[in-house]
Design brief:
Blueprint: H1 2-15, H2 26-38, E1 41-42, E2 45-48, E3 56-63, E4 68-73, E5 79-84
Antiparallel strand pairs: 1-3, 2-3, 3-4, 4-5
Length: 85
């Protein structure tokens, strides 16, 4: 059993960096900001999904009333989903 647990943690330790998100480029960040502003949101922390999905994610963006949302955008910077925090 102990060997199984060690093996599982070893696999996770190697695989975890492959699934880490990255920061969008300056140009991508500009387009994300423009798309959010057009929909009435601002701020938040931007990430680019690295699983090959081409999806961007903005955590804790705020609307005009100050409520926080997590927002996903596709590779063309169109909003896919908005989830209230």
């Amino acid at each position: 059993m102990k060997k199984l647990v060690i093996a599982a943690f070893s696999i996770l330790a190697v695989a975890a960096p492959a699934f880490a998100d990255s920061k969008p480029s300056d140009e991508e960040a500009k387009k994300i900001t423009e798309a959010l502003a057009a929909a009435g949101y601002s701020g938040g922390t931007m990430e680019k999904e690295t699983e090959g999905s081409g999806v961007f994610e903005v955590d804790d963006a705020k609307d005009k009333s100050g409520l926080q949302f997590d927002i996903k955008l596709d590779k063309d910077f169109k909003i896919l989903s908005v989830t209230r925090d």
